[in-house]
TrEMBL record, chain A:
Gene3D superfamilies with a match to the protein in the record: P-loop containing nucleotide triphosphate hydrolases (3.40.50.300)
Organism: Halobacterium bonnevillei
Protein name stated in the entry: ATP-binding cassette domain-containing protein
Keywords in alphabetical order: ATP-binding, Nucleotide-binding, Transport
Keyword flag rRNA processing: no
Entry similarity comment: Belongs to the ABC transporter superfamily.
PANTHER family: ABC TRANSPORTER, ATP-BINDING PROTEIN
Domain annotation ABC transporter: ranges: 4-231
Gene Ontology MF terms: ATP binding; ATP hydrolysis activity
Family matches, as SUPFAM superfamilies: P-loop containing nucleoside triphosphate hydrolases (SSF52540)
TrEMBL record, chain B:
Domain of life: Archaea
Residue ranges of the TM segments: 20-41, 47-75, 102-128, 134-155, 167-185, 250-272
Gene Ontology cellular component terms for the protein in this record: plasma membrane
Keyword Transmembrane: yes
Protein name: ABC transporter permease subunit
Amino acid sequence: MTAIETTGLTKRYGHDVYAVNDLSLTVEEGEVFGFLGPNGSGKSTTIDVLMDYVRPTAGSATVLGYDAQTDADEIHQRVGILPDGYSLYDRLSGRKHVEYAIRLKDAEDDPDAILQRVGLAADAAARPAGTYSKGMSQRLALGMALVGDPDLLILDEPSSGLDPDGIRDIRELTLEHAESGGTVFFSSHILSQVEAICDRVGILDDGRLVTVDTIDGLRDALGAGSTITVTVDAPPSGLAFDDVAGVSSVVVDGDEIHATCTEPTAKLAVLDRIRETEHRILDFDTRQSSLEDLFSAYTHPTDDRPRTEGRP
Amino acid sequence: MSWRVIARKEFEDAVQSRLLWGVVAFVAVMVSVTFLIPLLVPALDSGVLAALGGASEFASMLVPIVALVAAYLAIAGERESGSLRLLLGLEPSRRAVVAGKFVGRSAVVVVGLTVGFLLAGVVAWAVYGTVPAGAFLGVLLLTDALGVAFVGIAIGISATSATRSRAMTIGIAAYLAFALLWDLIPQGAHLAVFGGPPGASAPAWFVFLQGASPTGAYSALVMNAIHATDPSYPAATTVLDGPVPFFVEWWAFAAILVAWTVVPLALGSIAFERADLN
């Protein structure tokens, strides 16, 4: 069964502001899915539609087979949500928050067990949530999401405001949930946070889904690529690398030339091509491409989308 | 049945934040003072019934403020802060949220008004030596009903407002309209029809218009309730010359008060259910 399915999902504000644009996405049950994109790319809006906080302009969404708009009740019984932009009840203690969640969900959980799972000590849980740091708030909100043993966990930027310990705890809880057969939908604007735990990732940019793949698939798409950065004496002109075999993209930035190479030998060919001109090479540097490069290539397509022409 | 869970939390919150005790103290002091005014001003009729009537007139100005303040942020406040996003993650039915908020805040206002009124009743009993139990109880229940009506109005406003400031603006406008400006409608209509203000007698439609606001309906019902204990005290329809038409019977005013509770609540609930909450 599919955990999340959106078909042509579109959310438009005003006449021409598209928060989400024709998004079609399928997340299978039991999967840990990373939903990646820069801030403002439409991740939270997509989640808001799944949770029926906002209604789509066009298209549809189902969660665990239920329609997000008409069956919100069924969905919320089976989903734990750590939303973006939430706030806690300042006067209510952490423990009272969890108790409230248990009563609202009509669940059987033990509040202390939940608090322990998310690493909130008993004395911290007894304090009003208004005194909490961002990290403690995030742990408490995650605890509330875990109430009722949901089939699907939707975590919107769960790592924001957390220290490395907190990020590791989130990772462990996520994997624990997946091992027990649950699905996790994990949004982030930082690739490295989803890289280690996600089976697949979808990259969203400006409301559009630009790619969906496994982490390995993304690595393959990246190839054994590397980047050579050459600094020349003056902003280069009249340079073309179209016919250099093994160069996938070139970006010129001031007096620096960044060439992405799919074959190791191409790097030397790039240097040779520059030396054929009147430009003098001052320095050069090579480095292995990372997934971050790929992510930024997808989400900043005007800078250096793979396989596009270098700017003159 | 999660509206019950929400209502209970709202009530506990009000106890914890001392909102409830604020309401109790405010109502007890203000109503006690109005009970004493007829004694301090020798020109006024100094009977305990007149004092009760005076207290209810004062309550018709006071209770809307208490109820609006106690409830106008119930939903808009959570919406602006973002805690609504957690709440709706746990209970997606927005109708249940509106119902829970309404019941919880109503309970706060009813308990606050009742305890405050009873304390004021003790003061009145100490001063006058007697309190007409029937009339006092009637006025108390009607005051509670007025409080609930304004909680309905406040929750309706809160459900339609995306921000605190908007809820406050509409809340203040509603208070001015109901508690202060409404009387201009029957007076203006009377002036337009008869060329002057009403004298000792007035037409039935004038009585109806006066009682068509929540506070107007409350005042009419209070007059009828006190009149029922002591026929020398005027009823809402005493100013009528001829027969009493059905639309100024006591139950018409009761229906008006119920409508003022339910209609804003329903409209707010519908608007809230359709809103994008982000």
